[in-house]
């Protein structure tokens, strides 16, 4: 399974919103190496509204089955207060299942490198695959929560100011800050890169 495959499942739904549980179950059913996606809330002393993805241990459902990889998404408990922020954050982290080996944040050193890059916003030529993956997953979450078939139905009304940011956020159950880039012309460029010309 590649991202475009998961996107096609989302776009085949009868209408928005695309639920995180639907995406999680679809990944488990169709991704060749992921057999489970565990999601945990963690209570931080200073809430940060962040979520993180990691590959956990390998597991199996019985002694006779092949083992599979367990994906884990850990999120700040404060996200429980805003279901839209939580859906977007969890979906963005789920998109890391499509990371190649070079983009995986699987050591303490790589995690430190990524945090430094997030702080410094390096130039594209200096960015690691891990940092570039953070940018990609932002768009992957936006695309899959707002599939083109549904998003395009509202485009003219949004541009004509018949629908406001709040209205689009309500339809797709996404945070309001996501709406401007979902409804921007750049959406089509991201769609072309991530869906119609995907990396295998």
Roughly what is the average pLDDT, rounded to an integer?
86
Order of helices and strands: HHEEEHHHHHHHH
Radius of gyration: 17 Å
Shape: globular
Helix content: 40-55%
Strand content: 5-15%
Distance between the termini: 9 Å
State the oligomer.
single chain
Strand order of the largest sheet: 1-3-2
Determine the number of helices (DSSP H or I, runs of at least 4 residues): 10
Low-pLDDT stretches are none
* SS content category: alpha+beta
Query: How would a textbook summarize the main sheet?
Result: 3 strands, mixed
Beta strand count: 3
Helix and strand topology:
Blueprint: H1 3-11, H2 20-30, E1 34-42, E2 51-59, E3 68-76, H3 83-94, H4 108-120, H5 129-145, H6 148-151, H7 155-159, H8 165-172, H9 179-182, H10 186-196
Parallel strand pairs: 1-3
Antiparallel strand pairs: 2-3
Helix pairs in contact: 1-5, 3-5, 5-10
